[in-house]
C-alpha cells in the first residue's frame, strides 16, 4: 500500500472531473488528465475536492472517480480523496466508499448546512479520525461551509494525531502561517502536512514554510506549479515570483463567465478550467455539472487567449 | 395513491427522527411519534427536514425513515420528504429513493456548499421538477444554504408549475407575504401551497393568507398548533394570539443548551425537542446525532419545567 | 415641553430630508413635508433616521433638520431624532446637538464600524441613557450595524429604564414579538414603546401588540398608514389586511432603480420615496445625497405609475 | 509643505491615541508615542485609523490628535490622517478638518452603515479626490465597512489619479497582490503606493512588491517592523522570516482579553497595544475609549509576559 509521506510535500492538484455531455464521468478523459498531471511531476493527486465538482457528483460518480484514478496510478503516487458531506455520519459513509476504492487519505471539511459549535467541529474530526482506516486531512473552506477552522484547533488535533494535515482554502494567510509555524515549533506535532489551496500566493505560502500546494489552476498548468514549487524550494525567490505572477495572469481566465453576470464566480472558474483542458486536448468535453451555467463559445475562445498568452496552446 | 391537496393546508409537522443510543433510527419510537402527531389532527407529515436532523442521517437511515412513516400512515395523510443535498444530481438520487419509499411530495432547498447564481437556482428547481414523479416544494432556508429565494422566482416557478409549494424558513415575513399575495392574485398561479416554518409567528402568517405551517415545535405540542390553526381559520384572532403566545413561551426550551455556551442554537433546539418527546413518553431516547453535543441531565430537567408550565406533563 | 406618551402609539414616519440640487437641506420643502405628514394624522415625527439619509448628512445639515422641524411643529407633536454614529462618545455629541435643537427623544443604534461585544452594546445604551436629557430609543437595524439586539437585552434595558422604546428595523418579527410580549408581561417594564420599522407587515406587528410603526413608505402615503393603524386598533383585521396589501403594492416602487443593476436597494428605495414626494408636489427636487446614484427620468416616471395605481396622483 | 513620496515606502504605523482616564486625548503621551515611533525609523505616521480608535473619537478629539502630531513632527515626516465616516459629505467635513490641522494625506474607507453599490463606491472616491487639497488613500477594511474594494476599481482610480495609494486591511493577500502587480505593470499607473495593514504577513506582502506596511503592532515594537522592512528590502528573506515570526508571537497579546469571553477581538487587541505602551513607559494610562471593556489587571500582566519574551521590557 502507498505510504503517505509525512509531511507530504509538493504540488497536489485537485483533479477536475471530466464529464460526458450526459453528466457521467468521462473515464478516458479522466485517465488522460491524470497522465497530464503525473507527467508534469506532481507529488500526489487530490480527487473529489471542490475543483473536482465533488458537490455535484452522485455517490456512484464519486466512487467511479476514485476507482478510476486509484487503478490508473496504481500506487505510483498517493491519492487523497475528498469526503465532502454535511455531518459525521454521512462523511463516514464516504470514508468507507473512497477507502474501499483505494484512497490513501481522506480530506474532510467541517460540518455544513447545519450550524455547528466549535466544540462540535473538533468532535467531528476526532470521530472521523477514530473511524477512518487512512489519515484524515482537514479542509478549511469557509466560503463553502461558513465556518473557519482556527489555528488553535487544527494544531490541537494535529498534536492528538487526529489530523494528518490541512488543506487551507480560507484565503487567510495569517491564520495559515500560524498553523505552519505551530507545526514546526509545537511540542507534540510531528509530520503534519500543511498545504495551501490559494493558487495566487503559493510562493508566499511556501516561503512561510508550507509543505505544498493544492492549486485548482494546476489542472491547466501543472508544469508551471511544479516549476514554482522547485524555485521556492531552491530559495530562488526572484524567479519564483515571476513564475507565480505568470500563473496569476493565467488565472484571469476564471473571470470570463462571471463578468457577464450570467453566472457566479464558481461556475465561471470551473468552466474555465475545463475549457482550458479541452482546448489543450486533455479532456473530450468542457461541460460542467448541473445546475451550473456553462461558458459560451465566445467565453471558451477567451480562455484560449489566456492559454496562448501563457504559451500553453 | 395519496393525492396531495392543492393547496395543502393545516399543520404539517417536520417530524423529528428518534435515534437509538447507537445512532440508528429508532423505528418503534418513530411510529409512536407519528401516532402522537396524527392523533392530534395534523394534515400531513414532513419527514427528513432540518428538524428531522436530515443533514445528520446517512442515506440508509433516511430511507428507513420514509419507509417506516410511509408504511405506517398508509395513505391516511400525505407524507412530504426532504431531499436535502448539495446540488441537482445528488438531490435527484434522494428524489428517487424517497419516492420509491412512498413519499407523496419532495421538499428541496437551493444548492449549497457551492456558490450558485440565481439563474442556476431557478434551473435547479426546473430540473428537479422535470424529473420528479411527485410534486416539488421549495424549502427556503437561508440560514442553512446561505441564499434566499426571492418571491419573484418562487412565483415564476409556481406559474410554470415547476413548484407545487413553498416551505418558508427564512424568517422574512415580508418576503413570505409577497409569495402569499402573489399566489392568490397572480394570473397563472393556482393551487400553490405556501407554508411557514416560523413557529413563533404562525398566527401572523395565517392572517396574511398562508395555507399552513411546518413548526418544529409541533413535535412537542401538535395539539397546540392544530388548535392555533383552527382559531385562525375561524377568525378568532384574540384567542389565536393567546395560543400562539403560549407556544412562544414553550419554545423558550430551545435556549437551555445554548445559553451555557457548550453548544450552538441548532443542537440546543433539536436536543430540547427530543428531550420533550422523551419526557412526554413518546420516544425512548433523547439522543441527537453526531457530532452534536447533547443536553445535560440538568438541561433536560429544564425542558421538563417548560412542559409542566405548558400543561404538557 | 412636549411630554412623550409612554408608550408612544400610532404612526411615526421617518421623515425624508429634501435636498437642494447642491445637497443642502431644502428647508421650505422640509416644512411642506412636515405639514403633509402632520395633516395626515401621524402621532410623532422621527427625523434623522435611515430614511432621512442621516448617514449622508453633515452635522450642520443634521442640525438644520432638527431645528427646522422642531420650530415648525412647535410642540404640537413629539419629534424623535436619530443620533446615528459609530460609538458612544460620537453619539453623545449628536445627543447634545439634537436636544439643543429641540428633539424630544433620541434614537440610537448599536455601535458600528467597530466590532462590539454584546456586553459593550448594553454598556453603550446605559452610557447614553445616563447622559441624555431626553428618553433614549434603541434602533435595531442589523443591515446597517451588523449586529442584532436580542429581546433579552432590550427588555433588560427597558426594566432598568435605560431605554424608553425600540424602533425595530431588523425584519425579525419573531424577535420583535418577544419584545412586545415581554413589554406587556415582564414585571418591572412599564410604558415601554415598541415600534416596527417593517412597512410591509405593520398589520401583523400591531396584531401582536406593537404600539406603532415607523414606515419609510409613510412619507409617500401617510394617510394610508394612519388608516391602517386605525383599522388595526379597531380590530377590523380584514380591512386592515386589504389596506396593508395596497401599501405593499405601492412599495414595489422601491425596486425600480435596483432592478436595472445601476444602483443598490437602498439608493433605489430612497430615490423612489423622494421621487414620489416630488411627483405629489410635496418637495421641490427628488435628488438624493452623494454618493448615491439617482433615479433616471424613466424610473421617476415608473414611480408615477405606482402612485397612479394607488390613487395618489 | 511636506511632499509625500510617490510611492511612499517603509513602515507607517497607525498611531494609537492615548487617552486620559476621562477619555480626553492625553497630549503628552501622544507626543511621547510619536517620538517613540519616529525614533525607531518609521517613514510616516498614520493617525485616526482603526488602531487609533478613530471610530471612538469625537470630532474635537480627532482634531486635537492631528494638530498635536502635525505640530510635533513639524514636517520631518508625512502625516496621513484617517477621515473615517459614513458617506461622502461627512467624510469631506473630516478632510477639511484634518487638512487644516496639517495632514499631508487623507485615508478614506468605502461608505458604511448604508448599503452602497460598487458604482457608488467608485463615485465616492472620485468625489473625495476632486475636493481634497491633499492626496487620497483608499482604506480597504471589509471587516468594518462590509464591502471589499476590488483590485480592478482600485487600479482604475489609480490610473485616473483619483487615488494616491491603498492601505489594505482586508486580509486578502491574493487581491492585494493584484493591486501590487497592477501598480507596477498597468500603463497609466505611476507612483501609486500600496501598503499592507496585515501585520502578520508583512514579509510576504513586501516580497510581492508592496511599498510598505501599516501594522498596528508597530506601536508596540516599531523597531522590529523597521528591521523587518530593511531585511526584506535587502532580500534577506531568511532573517526577515525570523523577524516576522518573532512579531507574530508578540502579536499573541491581542487574544488575552477576548479569550475570556468578556470582550471581543477588537477591544482585546486595542487594549493590549495600549497596555504594552503603558508597560513600556510610553503612555501614561492604558485606558481605551467607551463603550469598550478594558483589560483586567491580570490581562495587563499577561501583556507584560509577551513583552518580556520579546525582549521589550
Report on the architecture of this protein.
The structure is a homotetramer. The first copy, chain A, has about 325 residues and is α/β, with parallel strands linked by helices. Chain A has one domain (about 10-240): TIM Barrel. Helices cover about 45% and strands about 10% of the residues of chain A. Chain A contains 13 helices and 8 strands. Chain A has an 8-stranded parallel beta sheet. In chain A, strand 4, helix 4 and strand 5 (about 135-140) form a beta-alpha-beta unit. In chain A, helix 9 (about 220-235) packs antiparallel against helix 10 (about 235-250). The longest helix of chain A has 15 residues, at about 60-75. The radius of gyration of chain A is 18 Å and the shape is globular. Chain A starts with 9 loop residues before the first strand and ends with a helix. The model of chain A has no long low-confidence stretch (mean pLDDT about 95). The interface between A and B is large, with 44 and 44 residues.
Average pLDDT across residues of chain A? 97
Secondary structure tally, helices of chain A: 13
**Oligomeric state of the chains present here:** homotetramer
- The CATH architecture term of chain A is Alpha-Beta Barrel
Helicity of chain A, in percent?
40-55%
InterPro entries (chains A, B, C, D): Aldolase_TIM, DapA-like, Schiff_base-form_aldolases_AS
Pfam families (chains A, B, C, D): DHDPS
Family (chains A, B, C, D): Belongs to the DapA family.
Organism (chains A, B, C, D): Streptomyces graminofaciens
